[in-house]
Amino acid sequence: MNRLVIRGARLLGTESADLLVEDGVITEVGSVSTPSGAEVLDADGLVALPGLVDLHVHLREPGREDAETIATGSAAAAAGGFTAVFAMANTSPVTDTAEAAERVLDLGRACGLTEVVPVGAVTKGLEGAELAELGLMARSRAQVRVFSDDGHCVHDARIMRRALEYIKPFGGVISQHAQDPRLAGREACCHEGEVSGRLGLPGWPGIAEESIVARDVMLARHTGSRVHVAHVSTAGTVEVIRWAKAQGIDVTAEVTPHHLALTTDLLLGYDPVYKVNPPLRPAEDVEALRAALADGTIDAVATDHAPHARHDKEHAFVDAAFGMLGLETALSVVSDVMVRPGLLDWADVARVMSSAPARIGGLAHQGRELAVGSPAHLTLVDPDREVTVDATASRSRSRNNPWHGRTLRGAVLATVHRGRVTHDVRNGAGTRRELTTATTSGADL
Ligand SMILES: [Zn+2]
Questions:
Q1: Whose CB among 132, 197, 264, 327 lies 3.0–4.6 Å from 191's, allowing a Cys bridge?
Q2: Considering the domain 50-368, what is its CATH architecture?
Q3: Exposure of 290 in the CB half-sphere (CA atoms within 13 A)
């Protein structure tokens, strides 16, 4: 039997307790005496959270292994405290069949550092014209529940309606990249407003997002099915979601760490590291997003981790690829911009970064409370540790890190996935444990 004792952790930031983990399950909470042969993880003063769950990552495999692989993305996820990540379908080939979904699942299991959950495409080839094999993906070994054409909007209302009807019987959800392609033109590369005017860059307006979200919540009401709004970026979208939830419509939403912290004026230096889709918005939108996460209008934080090879990102602003890294810094950003000012406490962080995304994504074994009988997925956080982000030290294969050089307060020091320590920098960044790739059983912990 594999035994692990986690000593002296503050559960959700409150009282201190020891945890005994046996064969991947929490079997004792309180004052635990160390059984012989048990591994001991000293967590004195650290905040213990249920393992973080990310509804939105791009792992680039298959197809763009020069930017990221499931192995490097899993390592970045473990370093960021994540025990499950949802891998978006815009790979090459696209995850639009049962076989493709199972391949992603299997590659993730072979790495064993985090649970890699495939997201299925809504439409074949992400082309927006014909529904993908939603039912076959749902019935496959990968048991796909989250479907998204992310990178593209499911802009055809009829296709969106059919998809919502199709997934309803098996409890699926459509995660929508809300962006009307007619309002947000192909050339658009930043928020439409004062800054885009000054830079002479084609912008895309908040209404391109808001109008699709408004339509989709009405389609969710009409079909009685479930919509999830990916990467909410404007105050107007928050208003629509707040209204929809008040009507009892089954809608959930996520916000990225970068939309909670970074504003559109960063683009004044034309640095493509800040080029992202949806774009960075003005400060008043950032304020509204923080308030919405704090009051529960936005359910979850999701990174939209989007690695890009240098030759795709280091271009003139208009030509550079959209996207930023996010897995390794997410908790630190949330700690810095939400916990430190008192907008969220650690129990709230557990909700928005673990239990809510697990529920939205249909993962019954993730995001559970730190109690006897729960699978041992945990993240240990030092709330006071200041970290200065170094893009060159990333586990990701890519370096498009907008946080490089910034100092953030709050850091993940260790991650436990299925009772196994997958990340540990408690003794300083230089003493990271060597991680071996596990040959996992495939048991659904
Ligand atoms: Zn997207």
A1: 264
A2: Alpha-Beta Barrel (3.20)
A3: 24
Distances (CA, A) of 295 to 6, 137, 152, 243, 378: 32, 34, 29, 13, 25
H-helix or E-strand containing 216?
Answer: helix 206-223
5 exposure class (CB count in 10 Å sphere: 0-12, 13-18, 19+): buried
**Which residues sit in the known binding site for substrate?**
58-60, 90, 277, 308, 322-323
The mean per-residue pLDDT over the stretch 289-303 comes to 98
Cβ proximity of 212 and 179 under 8 Å = yes
Name the residue ranges covered by the structural domains of the chain: 50-368
**pLDDT digits 0-9 by tens, 102-138:** 999 999 999 999 999 999 999 999 999 999 999 999 9
Binding residues: 56, 58-60, 90, 150, 177, 231, 277, 304, 308, 322-323
Q: Identify the CA nearest to 32 among candidates 14, 1, 9, 2.
A: 9
Catalytic residues: 304
CA of 152 to the centre of ligand 1 (A): 7
Alpha carbon of 444 to ligand 1 centroid (Å)? 28
Question: Beta-carbon neighbour count of residue 70 at 10 Å?
Answer: 28
Give me ligand 1 centre to Cα 58, in Å: 10
| Residues annotated within a binding site for Zn(2+) | 56, 58, 150, 177, 231, 304
Instruction: Give the torsion sign (CA, 63, 275, 300, 242).
Output: negative
* Distance from residue 80's CA to the centre of ligand 1 (Å): 20
Neighbours of 380 (CB within 10 A): 26
